[in-house]
Amino acid sequence: MPLSCYKKIIVASVITCGLSAIVVFYSVLYKSYHQWEYRGNFTEDSSLIFVSVIFRHGDRSPMFNYKTNPHANAFPEGIGELTKKGKQHMYQKGQFFRRMYNGYINNLYLDSEILTKSTQMTRTIMSAQMVLAGMYPPRNYQKWSNLETVWQPIPIYSNSPDYGSLLAERGRCPSFDYFVEKLYLKVLNLTEDENITAPLFAYLSEKCEQPINIKNLNNFYDLLVCQISAGLKLPEWINSNHFQTIESLVMNKEKIKLVIGNLQFQQFIIGPLLREIGKNMELCLTNSNHNSTRKIHLYSGHDITLAAAMGFLGEIIKMPGFGASLHFHLYFDNTIGYSVKVFYFDQWNNEMGKEITIPTCGNPCKIQQFIRLLTDNFPEGQNDCQQVGH
User: Fold this and answer.
1) How many angstroms separate the CA atoms of 89 and 348, rounded?
2) Residue 364 and residue 44: Cα distance in Å, rounded?
3) DSSP secondary structure letters along 161-212
4) Cα 98–104–106 angle (5° rounding)?
5) CA-to-CA distance for 342 and 363, rounded, in angstroms?
């Protein structure tokens, strides 16, 4: 879609919503930095030849509990599992992918067009299943039952080079465990305002009837987020001020940057995955018909996966929401040649993503520069746990 069309869409939205002219000004200013909002169908650009998408799993149950939790039995799925809402949301995410890429990929499932990989967590595998169900409702001969069918079997491979689950799988990669312990000590050494933390931890510990401190605050916050996403009401003793204070401590930008912005952390978590994405793009260059690899690769992963990838792209973000996705597009134009663009959608129901400027890659980002950026930062075998048993 030409850039002029995007401008018309933005202006129309502004008029419809009755926003002031100053919003239009800032929207145009925002675009001038090449981070424009997307709304529509990517496939209207016929130069798109390859897509890789990394997405976070859907809403899950908490990993943490406390003695006085009023919703202790609210998640029958078990610890860290995909919830009913998570299934619904990822099905809708798949429908969104269908709208985004309809025409670029066939509306019939074809194994020659799409490859889906997942980490070996049940929530990521199930999320991939729901996304594919939303993308490929069975049509015509693919309806395998005389009854109404809304699903068809599509393979999901559990050999994803995504290592976003390493934080929850201690012992799987000893070198990563050692590195994280040192990094964790640096995070703990970042000073907090004791005038805020001391009374907060005392208050939370009293209400929870168990210790809540800086070491388990992340898990406590995650519990609250899971409960909110499930539509549960938080206890009356957690008001909006408490929640905002907890969130500000957990989502401290300095702490996040120390971890997510750390190149060695990125090498462990997303190095193999980004190398694979780059290699698949290179395969497209070796075939003039651009059919040497499948047209779209999906990777079902974790929040830390997307956050680390965004960190590598120079964007230090709060943890991505459930169903967030990061899209790597390869284009071919007779004038420009091969170029890469990246788009980010911060949660399952965000259909107005933004383009992410790839650092030190120029605009447009030529494929050769993109590959060099990957190989320079993620050399083969460095901080790689691929040989570690699953």
Assistant:
1) 6
2) 19
3) ---TTGGG-TTS-HHHHHHHHHHHHHHHHS---HHHHHHHHHHHHHHHTS--
4) 70
5) 12
**pLDDT (tens digit, 9 = 90+) per residue, 36-93?**
445 455 555 678 999 999 999 999 999 999 999 999 999 999 999 999 999 999 999 9
Residue 163's nearest CA partner among 64, 306, 321 is 306
| Residue whose entry in the numeric block shows the structure tokens 């099905």 | 91
Residue-level pLDDT at 146: 84
Q: Which residue has the tokens 């129309």?
A: 12
Residue 253 belongs to what H/E stretch?
Answer: helix 253-260
Supply 30's token pair: 């925002």
Crossing angle of helices 3-17 and 21-31, in 10° steps, is 160
The amino acid occupying position 280 is N
> Domain coordinates of the chain in residue numbers?
1-32, 43-62+80-167+258-390, 191-251
Fold of the CATH domain 43-62+80-167+258-390: Rossmann fold (3.40.50)
* Backbone φ, ψ for residue 382 (5° rounding): -80, 125
CA neighbours within 13 Å on the CB side: how many for 205? 12
DSSP 75-95: -TT-TT-B-HHHHHHHHHHHH
- Residue 288 DSSP class: T
d(CA 295, CA 7): 28
Range 174-182, long-range pairs (CB < 8 A, 24+ positions): 175/383, 175/385, 176/268, 176/383, 176/385, 179/264, 179/265, 179/268, 179/383, 180/265
Angstrom distance (rounded) from CA 52 to CA 40: 18
Task: Quote the Cα angle for 358-359-361, to 5°.
Answer: 75
